[in-house]
Amino acid sequence: MAPYQLAFQHVQLAMARHRLGAAYGIPLSTLAVTEVYRSEKPRTTSLLCIQPKVVQGELYMRVQQCIKFDHAQQDQRSVLPRIEKEQLSICSHLSWPDPEAMTALVKCKMLHPGTELRCPTCQPLLKCSACDMEFRVVIERLDHDTTAVFITKWMNMGCGETPQDPRWQRFLTEDYDPVACLKAAGESDLCWEYEREYEQPCDDLRKANALVLADRRYQQSYERSAAYDFWIQVP
Hints:
The protein is an alpha+beta fold. The chain has helices at residues 8-20, 80-85, 99-111, 166-169, 178-181, 190-197, 202-214, 218-221; strands spanning 33-39, 44-55, 58-69, 126-128, 134-143, 146-156, 182-184, 223-224, 230-233.
């Protein structure tokens, strides 16, 4: 087993099965996975959950990332230096190599909790204007000494017929200004189209993944990789 990587061939084969039937391609469930990584120095646990869905003939994906920080002090802002070391990334356009965009985003969510809308990044749903990925960032205290950062992303990978599909190609382009790419999602189509089709609401997914990390149940129910320091669960 190796950490999750999505290539165009995976999208192409899954969509071929959808269009042509069971004799072709691969099942959509092949692209679904939950992975958990644990690091002792510093003590963090990272979870990646990928849930694909075909919506109106195109492959949509909901991806939830979670980083749990153990032994966090009572003030959530104390974990900011540790968050910086995790090199958080939303997409190829909003990633940690530009600390201004990512640090400001996480710090905003910590300083302006709840429904306060003091700046553009306080919006409940944000997007990257370069690839149209929509995402939500939630900072949550799981218990008295554990803080978690949840990043839920919605993306449209296209119909899978050609790698030149603009919906696929825009994820590969990196020549954008990260600060300029960060926008409020406004009247969202991508997120709500996916959520209408999927049986598990986003908030329920976050709660379920928080439980997986809180009591380390992944160590009992997930398969541990021998070559990599992570646990994996596939449908």
